[in-house]
Write the structure tokens for this entry.
Amino acid sequence: MGSTGKIIRKKDLTIWQKSYIPEIVKGLRQTITEMFKPKFTIQYPEERFKPQPSFRGRPVLVRENEVERCVACGLCSRVCPALAIEVQASETELEKERYPIKFEINMVRCIFCGFCEEVCPEEAIVMSSEYELVFSSQEEAVFGKDKLLMTTERLKDRLEFLRQNR
Amino acid sequence: MESLLLISLIKFVAYVAIVIMSVIMLVYAERRVSAFIQNRLGPNRVGPWGLFQAPVDVTKLLFKEDIVPKNAYKPVHDLAPIISIAVALSTFAVVPFGNTIELFGNQVKLMIADVNVGILYLLSITSLGVYGVTLAGWSSNNKYSLLGGLRSSAQLISYELSMGLSIIGVLMVCGTLRLDQIVLHQTTYLGGWLPAWNIFLQPVAFITFFIAAFAETNRLPFDLPEAEPELVGGYHTEYTGLKFGLFFLAEYANMFTAGAVITTLFLGGWHLPYAENLGLSPTMLSVLQVLTFCVKLVLVELFFIVVRWTIPRFRYDQLMNIGWKVMLPLTLANVLVTGAVILMIH
């Protein structure tokens, strides 16, 4: 195709070609072979889509050694274009000295852009592979720390992906 | 006399039930086959393999609100779908789906009405179908509906002609207007081995009839009356609920009938080649013949469906060009050649 292909005008066609028949037969052969090919459909409740590590699912807080990595610097909340993240910092006896006493993501506002993950200096907030988000009210859509924390084992693929591609 | 009436009644009830169920199943088949062509699965949730999807959809349509536009002409608006479905269902009455069988001492023909001008009946009834579409387009008082209706009438009139002319070739070969006689004529063998189906005797007529059948049933290469990108929904834009359902069923019933007519006229009807040499009992043979008819019909319908998902829509001028400049001369030439060959043989 493109500029190298010869331009075929209608007057160049033979009567056989003008009769549409060869092209129709070609088309029919295409559709009939297509019929017996494997289907793309994933039958959702029974089969589920397994995302690649590059998939941006809902953002979660990384939990390492029973405590979150987050130091409540507030950069994610600052960068969030949809203003979905709210962080309140507090002090702790641990080495990191600060921790979020309150960390909320409003999942109705979140647009899954991944800016929070990109900006985080501690690699404490990452996009997980979870895509099933259901809530029945606005209040329920605000995810607190209880719902956001996720262990490093479950986020292994994503953390590995980030290490290689950042 | 009484038993004849009873047999007719039984045949009629069975026929209506079978045709309506097959038409509903045809909708399912279309959705399933189109899905397979597009590497999807199609409806597969309601019932085994999704077989109940189409009946459920029809039931849903029955319960939907019937909206008539404020400026529509209501009597005609109501009448149009009835015309469409009545015409679509009554065409099937003359199609024989099996040889004459003996039942309780009576000779029973496996067709509803043994009309001695079967083909003429068929042609005249199918031409009535255009009234349903055109009246629907006109009475809706909507420019898109009207355009759809107009296109439909123009298209049906131009293709009716080549349809009738291609049938003339068959009539000249068979020498009868009765559809069961035409099928019987096709049960002989040419040169002792090739079944004398009209597709072999009249290939040109077969192709032109097939193309005209696409146009008559408003199927895709010629579905200008309801070209979605241009005309919203065409003539049935302003229809909802049951009346829309009737149009929908009429469309598929037309397709079903077209398939049956093609099978009868060109593909040997219920004739299964060499089955009469198997030495089966008459009952077994007639069951086999009805099955043969069904299989042929299903294959033709499948071809209709696959073509719909293969070939894009024609432009309006291309449609008219093919109708008047290609199909009409071709069918006329076919009649001429057939006549000359028959004259030479006799």
The two ends of chain A are 39 Å apart (CA to CA). Chain A is about 25% helix and 20% strand. The first strand of chain A starts at residue 59 and ends at 64. Chain A touches chain B at residues 24, 27-28, 30-32, 34-41, 43 (CB under 8 Å).
